[in-house]
Amino acid sequence: MSSAASGQRGFGTGIAADAALLIVDMVNPFDFDGADELRGPALRAARSILKLRDRFDRAGAPVVYVNDNFMHWQGEFRDLIASCLAEDAPGAAIARLLQPGPTHYYVLKPKHSGFHDTALEILLRKLGVRRLAITGIATDSCIVATAQDAHMREFALWIPSDCTAAETPARKRRALDLMVDSYRASTRPATRRR
User: Fold this and answer.
1) Looking at the DSSP assignment, which residues form a beta bridge with residue 64?
2) Is the pTM of this model over 0.90?
3) What domains are defined for the chain?
């Protein structure tokens, strides 16, 4: 079996019992350098992430929001959601679309990787997770960093190409190719194109 195929086992038409969905940095104020270029692709990715999240929810599989704490360490995840949902917030459309539900988990991260100095690995082990679908932004930054750390921890990886975004298509493509080649990830899209 090819390395890409081994990475997508458990992510076919059904969701395996040992799979979890990570949604990285999609609850976001979009107030950083490059945000204007990223917001449009991120909204398109959010629509695909929502469909994938619905599949995980129907399967009873864990969904974990892995997010930077843009509240300068003085707020909780719910404070971040509230600020991003504000009418004039640049990321409001994405936050509304992907607002977490009551059964979803969250982990706040201090740096690029969802694993660096967070409880993510402990949470995933307690949930019996061995396969990760990693989605969100930016493909060439926080997604790559999280995927590398997940690969080092021997999680099987699926990074659906339609569920991530970067500032440019070239940056996204390079990052996806790296994750296929170096982390044995599948990048098969989550949604069928008509």
Assistant:
1) 22, 105
2) yes
3) 3-183 (3.40.50.850)
